[in-house]
Amino acid sequence: AYCQDNEVSWFDWDFDDAAWSLLEYTREVIGVFKSNPILRRRNFLTGRPSGGGNPDVTWVRPDGTEMIEEDWRNPETRTLGMLLQGRAADDVDERGRIVFGETVLLLLNGGTRSRLYTLPRMDRAGVWEELLNTAHPGPRLVKQQTVNLTAHSTILLRHNQDLET
């Protein structure tokens, strides 16, 4: 409300617990995006190899395999996985060196039921770490090859090559 110095434009800065919780979660999300260059791309994703020879994006089905054309056309599809390879960077720093990020997997469930999602096989050893989960707060290591993707939720995972199962 432009030029309104009354209740229309006033904002109540006295947060309740839910508002503080949302603020903390928002800070956490911003921190994750700031810390990983692969989540701050300057160019559109193409699905073609770039940087380290890996495709910049792979769309993943719940069984952990790459999506095919039929999956995109299926009106019953309610889940989607997006694998971004950290070595498939297209960004450079101020000296012209390629800026690599961490490999991340974003899982989305737009359905009304939970869905078991198989994590994709990676070329390098490591452990998947849950960075963000809209259904369950706090980061955690994923010890199985599957994650439970709660209805109407999003999970962001990082493939940590410094840790092994």
Low-confidence stretches: none
Spatial shape: globular
Task: Summarize the main sheet.
Answer: 6 strands, antiparallel
Q: In sequence order, what are the helices and strands, one letter per element?
A: HEEEHEEEEEEE
Number of strands: 10
Task: Assign the CATH class.
Answer: Mainly Beta
Strand content: 25-35%
**What is the CATH topology?**
Immunoglobulin-like
Alpha-carbon Rg, integer? 19 Å
How many domains, as an integer?
Answer: 1
Helical content stands at: 10-25%
Strand order of the largest sheet: 3-4-5-10-7-8
Mean pLDDT, nearest integer? 87
Structural class call reads alpha+beta
CATH architecture classification name: Sandwich
Q: Count the DSSP helices.
A: 2
- Distance, first to last CA: 54 Å
The CATH homology group name: Golgi alpha-mannosidase II
Describe this structure in words.
The protein is an alpha+beta fold. It has one domain (17-160): Immunoglobulin-like. The chain is 15% helix and 27% strand. The protein contains two helices and ten strands, in the order H-E-E-E-H-E-E-E-E-E-E-E. It has helices at residues 17-35, 69-73, and strands spanning 49-50, 54-55, 58-60, 79-84, 104-109, 115-118, 127-133, 140-141, 146-149, 153-160. The strands form three sheets. It has a six-stranded antiparallel beta sheet with strand order 3-4-5-10-7-8, covered by helices on one side. The protein has a two-stranded antiparallel sheet with strand order 1-2. It starts with 16 loop residues before the first helix and ends in a 5-residue tail after the last strand. The relative contact order is 0.16. The model has no long low-confidence stretch (mean pLDDT 87).
